[in-house]
Protein: MET27 protein
Amino acid sequence: GTGMGLPAAVRDRVAAVHRGSALPERLRLYDGWAARYEQDVAALEYRAPHLAAASLSFAFPAPREGARLLDVACGTGLVARELHRRGFRCLHGVDGSEGMLEQARSTGLYQELRRCVLGREPLPAPAEHYDAVTVVGALGEGQVPSTALPELLRVTKPGGFLCLTTRSNPSNLRYKAELEVALGQLEQSGAWQKLLAQEVEYWERATTEEESTQGTGYISGVVYIYQKCPVPHLDEG
Structure:
């Protein structure tokens, strides 16, 4: 069965943004997709926001209310919804698409939202500003380049957490390999330490037979959690 049980229109919209189009064209596609995005990803059974937020919550020390989080490539606010449910209240978001930011604004979950195309421009934040930074779903072929990792680190406080995800489907494997080299180099240089790299088999529904993991109809993905060094030491006594 081609299309893995997904409506053709959903399949086409997802495929369009993942195709190797130039950045302005892709941002235009995201703008146009924004209003239908959440119903489309529900059809995809897209689990990354839930999995990422759960992993970050597990690593993150209490209390959460005052912790400042940056949701990079925030889209319509799916990650914010999951973080909010887990007690995070101070959420800032950036995205390259104005259409997506409009949807995110309407959730009322973010205290601050700004347009930023990561990889093209710096994040609109001072150094060591955030207790945690999330990039869920945007680290992929033709999206946010792995060269943006130092910029994510720059805005994270020492001891702060970074939660990143990528897909393990065939068309993203080259990107994933590059990403893992970059992640490893930053770890070797002492910039951060890896707390988690969790491979997830049922990440979302595949849009084509070729992308599906062993004919399951799903693609797999991975959640990474890193902690920026130096990790603050607990005071004795």
Observations:
- The chain has one domain: 8-228.
